[in-house]
Amino acid sequence: MNSSRRQFLARTAAGAAVVAGGAFASTPASAFVKPLAAIGTTRITALTGVTVIDVANGRRHRHQTVLISGDRIIGVGRHLPVPRGAVELHLPGKFVIPGLADMHLHSLGDERVTPQLCLANGVTMVREMAAPDPVVYDWRDRIEAGTLLGPRMIVASQIIDGDPTLWDPNLLHVLVVQDEASARAAVRQVKKEGADFVKVYSRLGPAAYRALLDEARRQQLTVHGHGPDQVSVKEVSNAGQRSIEHIHALAVAVSSRESEVRRMMQAISVRTGDYNSWFRQMHPIEWLAANTFSRSRAADVFGTLRRNRTRVTPTLTMHNVLDLPDHTAPDPATLKYLSADSLGTFEYVIEQLYKANRSPEEISRQRQMWEYRQRFVRELFAHGVPVLAGTDTGTPYMVPGFALHDELELLVKAGATTQQALYSATAEPARFLGMSADLGSVESRKIADLVVLDGDPLRDITNTRRIHTVVTRGRIISPAVRDRMLADVEAAVKSTSTAAGLAAGGCCGTGRPGH
User: Fold this and answer.
1) Helices 402-414 and 316-323, interaxial angle, to 10°?
2) Is the pLDDT at 24 greater than 70, yes or no?
3) What global pTM score does this model have?
4) Angle CA 129–452–412, to nearest 5
């Protein structure tokens, strides 16, 4: 297997795979000035006859007019007059929600793909959960400056992990820390590199973890990421980590046999880059925890998370793939947004990494674990734990933007109300990031990040897919422009696939791994 394929696999194994294939590419900023100007920012735009959804309480405000000037909403109401000279978009029967946020995204591929797919799907903000290449900071800055069309980006540091790390540092940007001094140095380094927050990982030791949090406070950075194996969830929350990603660490924290579970966690042993081994060792621990779920422990742990406002990003889309690889396949409707190279690699990952060498008992347990994770998420909502909608896009067959709608549907299937699911992708991300004064609701003076839908998402969460118009910072992405954006992404993916095929050579020209 060649080095580029190994790099791809290393990223894919934990949900950070290249979606469009190929390496990061950067095009001149001037190449995107013209498309932004073409979308336009008229002095005042009026969306009339719409139903505005209040995601905080689930109310519908019918027959509304939303006035937009520049990048701000300047008025919302039933009897608002449309100013002379305004561009009126009469949209009876349409529903307006705040722009959506994917709070666990891995953007790989070039700038023609992920940013465009996000906006076309109404995703106007993303939290990039690891900086795989410095160019992502460039994307963030150019989007902020208005020279690249894309969602608002909040970008993590490189992954900071303990020694040995689950990742091969030669294949992925990982900062490995052994002690308090190296943990503090890592925080100072990522701040200089431009990170918006520090991303922590599973194998950090307790002393290094505590030093990292202290240094992050000194550097005025927040800390998000995995719950370290050797640190309890309550300590993570009480220490000030702002979010916990995935359900792995959380599930083991609510067992009636927590002491035994924690001893098993302490006994996990991995070599550098041995991510798959970590997953295999976690399975029996999670199984024990799932079958010893304690309501009193859950009330205690979830109460701590709620009081500290520690957010949880369940990433059910990711867990669905890992727990049910036998039922994982590309969606025919979005297949055109995946390159031939990425499809071949996804197939390899599913068959050789996730499905291989499992006993019938393991397969049965994985299916039951998926059922447990859904019940677990229902408990999070029932206990008032603040939840963020995030996908871990990059996991096999996920497509940026589209995957967030999958996540919202899985949250509702798990037991969230449609209002709770919408809140987790709109108002809660804004609160979490300290942006609630500007984002997260359809109100006067807020930034005009909006999605106009053809159906009522409170009635059926799948209606978030029925996108008519997207508004990003006051720019109107009409149905025609949205269609053109998606067509441009499809063309970019085809060109990437062709280039990859020519580079790979061989009988098929797809870059697939050998059988």
Assistant:
1) 80
2) no
3) 0.90
4) 55
